[in-house]
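Example complex used in Figure S2.
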Amino acid sequence: AQSVTQLDSQVPVFEEAPVELRCNYSSSVSVYLFWYVQYPNQGLQLLLKYLSGSTLVKGINGFEAEFNKSQTSFHLRKPSVHISDTAEYFCAVSAKGAQKLVFGQGTRLTINP
Amino acid sequence: SAVISQKPSRDICQRGTSLTIQCQVDSQVTMMFWYRQQPGQSLTLIATANQGSEATYESGFVIDKFPISRPNLTFSTLTVSNMSPEDSSIYLCSVAPGGLYNEQFFGPGTRLTVL
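Predicted assembly (228 residues):
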């Protein structure tokens, strides 16, 4: 079975500052990894995904994440955040070949002017 | 990608009643999923609904409480039966058009409040 731990429930940052949202996973098999964003009162939108290949993955809205197999991590980063990045961010994992997505608890990113 | 709509977008219901949530996709997909997001919580998978077969429920969820229909490749319904305040959540459907890679696209959700 897979599990996901998002180490920070809330992350406040100032506008134009860099941010890192942390995600660690546990799995006995190879996995696919995802970051989703949920803006207020909306559904989830895929930010980026790691399937294979390069461990540095670039997504939409200037976000990127790095897959680190030895540390079982998939941290999300953005060099300069905007007010519009205020949202809930979810890390998710699925076992290769399986259908099920397992989500972390979410990190609420708040951008202060 | 896929565009997903859900009806209703929100509802307030009385204890003991049932609500059916509809999920419509703009393309044919084999796999559809129903999730529950309790207030301030993450998403929990309720069941996987593949067209032409019975839905597969996750641990802690049963068909009598959450019956699902999947009459064709673009539509599904989830019913929340005999509701209690603990059922107050956002219910989301999603699809995985790519199948193998599990990239899922989500609907906007149905916000349910049970009084």
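Chain B has a mean pLDDT of 92. The interface with chain A takes residues 4, 31, 33, 41-45, 48, 92, 94, 96, 100-109 of chain B (CB under 8 Å).
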